[in-house]
């Protein structure tokens, strides 16, 4: 997993609430057996017309936001299905950070396993960032994960909260399975005790 | 004795293997259910790292999302769907994971066959790369959806790195009126608290209305928990639960069963246990629900009307309502019961069980599906199909003009050939009415099986109580 530390990039505004994972990556693209290559299908049903040409008014099709690496979105981003194809598609497009007032739990978890930073901010801060993002390519936003800071184009700073384990994982690009396997003896110990207590399992 | 604990606290505590740092714990996973869509990259990850499946005996796989519901004997024609199912079959063979093949009578939707086979037991931790894993919480097991990276983590270690969620209790009191089902209760709850109402929480359902539900009804309620934003829903196990489990193929056998029941009886929230959030509902005041928009929270009683964006105080919700009305092709103020449908879908992990099919048969027996409506019934598993046929339900359905299909996820998410065309409008017993969910441009109204049956007969959303 790619590490995440600092990022300065264009932010695309998506002022919609309840952006669900079916919107992020429609199910017809879940048939892949790969993790990569989903960026072209990100938001496919909003992004393309029936003939496959681009919807000009969709934010990521506008020249200012084609290289956006940050999304500013409405409440409850990533609700719905557990499909990790959603963060895979965001990452493959180039999005490394999503900022919203809240995230659905499974999507939130999936982001951290893929080097994407989801940041939760207040409604007031979101409105400010949404305005900043609407100014286009000249108004970049900076994220500093170590310092837990978002810096707007006018120099305003927003502090954000993140739990320390997920922060550590992102900063170091940690292999979580490797980490757990180091504790294998504890797992074995647990299994042996359980076998005695609940032999039907 | 320590502090009073909730049911969630108890299951959590009994599965903590170790604390990593701060809020992160290693949690042991008792049962891992696997399907074809969210597992190929996980098995590939194992292979690339030279890792094994730690406990194939605690893992179980079946293909459900991509499988056709017609002419299954001819196999899958879509090459991508076929590759995904073939990949699951190859992976389960390579890693020694038990698997029900597409020709096995016991196959079906993963959340239907878990309980059906006795793979789902109280007090367990259960995960699957599918958000509707919350279904299994009906047994008092802590069950939730995970992403593919976590699928790989569980395959390799039989554990997950987790943070503990908060506790929320939804108490549903009173007697459930005729025509109202677990699905209506679920929609009423989501309509009340919103699709983010349970975010960060595990919901325990309590109250006499919940106790009065069958296991099928409880599964429907827990299934929809994820639509309220909570990853897991829980119902404390009781005699109804124990009776359902007894004698199922993977359930504890005599001797072990009695020992298990003694333990399962301890699985309930202690008196005075703390819940971070409490919600109450009176079931006796409920009437059947339908959704009008593109989020499960857009749920209203069938006697209501399509709302106007101006009805919403919140700016975000106002924008969402505007977008939803446009997508759904509806006008504010029109009566919900005037909405005409051209499709009816009965099935899914929400409402594809035998009790659901019986409810449909009761409404459609001696009636006809309106000629403008295309109506399909997809049983949740091969065993549900066999049971329904043994009871003669299939004959009732076919005589009424329904198509009687083979099991699978089908038109709940339209990954197989069953999908809506742009502009099609469907009364559906599934769980999500998102844009494009049942096919690009398709319009979904979520309803109970009885309400779907009523819509099939009349051709419009209908209060099933009027059909008697």
Automatic annotation (TrEMBL), chain A:
Organism annotation: Sneathiella sedimenti
EC category: lyase
Protein name: 3-isopropylmalate dehydratase small subunit
Enzyme Commission number(s): 4.2.1.33
Family the UniProt entry places it in: Belongs to the LeuD family. LeuD type 1 subfamily.
Assembly and binders: Heterodimer of LeuC and LeuD.
Chain ranges of the Aconitase A/isopropylmalate dehydratase small subunit swivel domain: 1-124
UniProt catalytic activity: (2R,3S)-3-isopropylmalate = (2S)-2-isopropylmalate
Gene: leuD
TrEMBL record, chain B:
Organism superkingdom: Bacteria
Role of this protein: Catalyzes the isomerization between 2-isopropylmalate and 3-isopropylmalate, via the formation of 2-isopropylmaleate.
Enzyme nomenclature, EC number: 4.2.1.33
Keywords from the named record: 4Fe-4S, Amino-acid biosynthesis, Branched-chain amino acid biosynthesis, Iron, Iron-sulfur, Leucine biosynthesis, Lyase, Metal-binding
Enzyme class: lyase
Domain Aconitase/3-isopropylmalate dehydratase large subunit alpha/beta/alpha: 9-459
Record family assignment: Belongs to the aconitase/IPM isomerase family. LeuC type 1 subfamily.
Pathway where this protein functions: Amino-acid biosynthesis; L-leucine biosynthesis; L-leucine from 3-methyl-2-oxobutanoate: step 2/4
Protein name: 3-isopropylmalate dehydratase large subunit
Binding site for [4Fe-4S] cluster: 349, 409, 412
Residues in coiled coil: none
Subunit structure: Heterodimer of LeuC and LeuD.
Region called Disordered, residue ranges: 424-443
Database matches in Gene3D superfamilies: Aconitase, domain 3
Catalysed transformations (reactions): (2R,3S)-3-isopropylmalate = (2S)-2-isopropylmalate
Native organism taxonomy: Bacteria, Pseudomonadati, Pseudomonadota, Alphaproteobacteria, Sneathiellales
Family matches, as InterPro entries: 3-IsopropMal_deHydase_lsu, Acnase/IPM_dHydase_lsu_aba_1/3, Acoase/IPM_deHydtase_lsu_aba, Aconitase_4Fe-4S_BS, Aconitase_4Fe-4S_dom, IPM_dehydratase_rel_enz, IPMI_cat
Native source species: Sneathiella sedimenti
């Amino acid at each position: 997993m790619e590490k995440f530390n600092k990022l300065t990039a264009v932010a695309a505004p998506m002022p919609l609430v309840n952006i669900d994972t079916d919107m992020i990556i429609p199910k017809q693209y879940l048939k892949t057996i790969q993790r990569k290559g989903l960026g072209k299908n990100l938001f496919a049903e909003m992004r393309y017309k029936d003939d496959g040409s681009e919807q000009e008014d969709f934010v990521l099709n506008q020249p200012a936001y084609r290289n956006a690496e940050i999304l500013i979105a409405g409440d409850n981003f990533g609700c719905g299905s557990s499909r990790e194809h959603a963060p895979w598609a965001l990452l493959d497009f180039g999005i490394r950070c999503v900022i919203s007032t809240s995230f659905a739990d499974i999507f939130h978890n999936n982001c951290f396993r893929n080097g994407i930073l989801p940041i939760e901010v207040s409604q007031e801060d979101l409105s400010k960032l949404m305005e900043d993002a609407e100014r286009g390519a000249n108004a970049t936003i900076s994220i500093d994960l170590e310092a837990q800071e978002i810096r707007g184009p006018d120099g305003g700073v927003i502090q954000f909260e993140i739990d320390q384990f997920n922060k550590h994982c992102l900063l170091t690009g940690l292999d979580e399975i490797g980490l757990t396997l180091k504790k294998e003896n504890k797992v074995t110990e647990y299994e042996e005790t359980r076998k005695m207590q609940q032999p039907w399992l | 004795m320590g502090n009073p604990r909730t049911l969630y606290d108890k299951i959590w505590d009994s599965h903590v293997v170790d604390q990593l740092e701060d809020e992160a714990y290693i949690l042991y996973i008792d049962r891992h259910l696997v399907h074809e869509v969210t597992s190929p990259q996980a098995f590939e990850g194992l292979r690339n790292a030279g890792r094994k499946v730690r406990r194939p005996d605690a893992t179980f796989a079946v293909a459900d999302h991509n499988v056709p519901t017609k002419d299954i004997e001819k196999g899958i024609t879509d090459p991508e769907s076929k590759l995904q199912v073939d990949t699951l079959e190859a992976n389960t063979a390579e890693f020694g994971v038990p698997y029900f093949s597409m020709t096995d009578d016991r196959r079906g939707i993963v959340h239907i066959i878990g309980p059906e086979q006795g793979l789902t037991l109280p007090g367990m931790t259960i995960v699957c790369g599918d958000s509707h894993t919350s279904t299994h919480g009906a047994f008092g097991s802590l069950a939730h959806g995970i992403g593919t990276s976590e699928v790989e983590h569980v395959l390799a270690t039989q554990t997950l790195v987790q943070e503990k969620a908060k506790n929320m209790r939804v108490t549903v009191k009173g007697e459930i009126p005729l025509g109202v089902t677990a699905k209506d209760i679920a929609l009423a709850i989501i309509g009340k608290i919103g699709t983010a109402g349970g975010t960060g929480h595990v919901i325990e359902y309590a109250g006499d209305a919940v106790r009065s539900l069958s296991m099928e009804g409880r599964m429907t309620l827990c299934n929809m928990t994820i639509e309220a934003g909570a990853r897991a829903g829980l119902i404390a196990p009781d005699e109804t639960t124990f009776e359902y489990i007894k004698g199922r193929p993977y359930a504890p056998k005599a001797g072990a069963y009695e020992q298990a029941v003694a333990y399962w009886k301890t699985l309930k929230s202690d008196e005075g246990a703390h819940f971070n959030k409490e919600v109450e509902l009176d079931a006796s005041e409920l009437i059947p629900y339908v959704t009008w928009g593109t989020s499960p929270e857009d749920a209203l009683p069938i006697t209501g009307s399509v709302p106007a964006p101006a009805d919403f105080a919140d700016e975000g919700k106002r924008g969402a309502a505007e977008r939803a009305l446009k997508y759904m092709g509806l006008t504010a103020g029109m009566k919900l019961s005037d909405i005409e449908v051209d499709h009816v879908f009965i099935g899914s992990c929400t409402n594809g069980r035998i009790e659901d099919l019986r409810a449909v048969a009761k409404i459609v027996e001696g009636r006809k599906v309106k000629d403008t409506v295309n109506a399909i019934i997809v049983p949740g598993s091969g065993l549900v199909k066999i049971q329904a046929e043994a009871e003669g339900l299939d004959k009732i359905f076919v005589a009424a003009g329904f198509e009687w299909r083979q099991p699978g996820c089908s038109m709940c998410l339209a990954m197989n050939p069953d999908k809506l065309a742009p502009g099609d409008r469907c009364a559906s017993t599934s769980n999500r009415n998102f844009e494009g969910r049942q096919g690009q441009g398709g319009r979904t109204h979520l309803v109970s099986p009885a309400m779907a049956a009523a819509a099939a007969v009349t051709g419009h959303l209908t209060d099933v109580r009027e059909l008697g």
